[in-house]
Every structure is written in C-alpha cells, then in structure tokens.
Design brief:
Largest sheet: 3 strands, antiparallel
Number of helices: 5
CATH superfamily: Ribosomal protein L17
CATH architecture: Alpha-Beta Complex
Radius of gyration: 18 Å
CATH class: Alpha Beta
Oligomer: single chain
Strand order of the largest sheet: 1-3-2
Length: 141
C-alpha cells in the first residue's frame, strides 16, 4: 500500500519545482491569496503551512531557515510581523482552498489558495449569522 509516500512532482524537474514553490509561496504571503490549479495549491499549501509555523516564533534561526525559501526581505518581514503572530493560538491549518471552477483552455480545476482571516473576525462573523437566524422567524420545534 502506497500511503502518502512522496509528493506530487507536478510534471517538473526538481529545480523548476523548487522555483515554482518559492514563487507561489512568496506571492501567497505578499498578496495573502493566489489563484492557481488544484494540484499546485495542494502542493504549495504544505510549504506555506511549514513556513507559517516557523514564523510563529521570531528568531534569527527561524528567519534564516525561512529566507532560504522566500524571495524578498519585505515578504520575509511581513511573514514574521503580520502573518505569523495572527496564527499564534492556532495549531495548524492556516490556509483554505476555495474551488472556483474549471479553466476554459484545458479544463484544469482552478482554486483560490488563501490565508484564513484573524480569529476574532471569523468568530464575530459567525456569531452575527447565528443571531440573524434566531431572530428571523418563528421558534423551531
């Protein structure tokens, strides 16, 4: 049985795949969302989650390890100053994949890979929706 051995090679040579990961993760951190294919998003998600876990503790050692992967000092700084502290209380699962349909050229499944919002914003938003449901009609049986 071949359970989770290896990773998706994305039909690329190792150097091209590494450059793709670095570019996509850098764009994800810079813009906090990126539109790509489902296969690439699932591969990039692994890399991005590992970097965010490193960024939760700001140290010289962690910055040097993450700097091997990211392009640009501004993106590195944003990861450690904004993104990492946002997920301090969260043990994992910092990203979400939203399906958007299929590409017209080759019918590849397209998705949006994005970081989750702040915990406070998400909790407040879900409470508002629950309050609206409770006050909008007759009591449930």
């Amino acid at each position: 049985m071949n359970n989770l051995k290896g990773f998706n090679k994305l039909s690329r040579k190792p150097s091209h795949r590494r450059a793709l990961h670095r570019n996509m993760v850098t764009s994800l951190i810079r813009y906090e969302k990126v539109k790509t294919t489902a296969a690439k998003a699932k591969a990039i998600r692994r890399t991005a989650e590992k970097l965010v876990t490193r960024a939760k503790m700001d140290s010289v050692h962690n910055r040097r390890i993450v700097a091997k992967t990211l392009y640009g000092k501004d993106v590195l700084n944003k990861l450690f100053v904004e993104v990492g502290p946002r997920f301090m209380d969260r043990p994992g699962g910092y990203t979400r994949i939203i399906k958007t349909g299929y590409r017209s050229g080759d019918a590849a499944e397209m998705v949006i890979l994005e970081f989750l919002q702040n915990e406070e914003q998400g909790a407040a938003g879900s409470r508002k929706n629950k309050d609206k449901r409770k006050s909008s009609g007759a009591p449930r049986k």
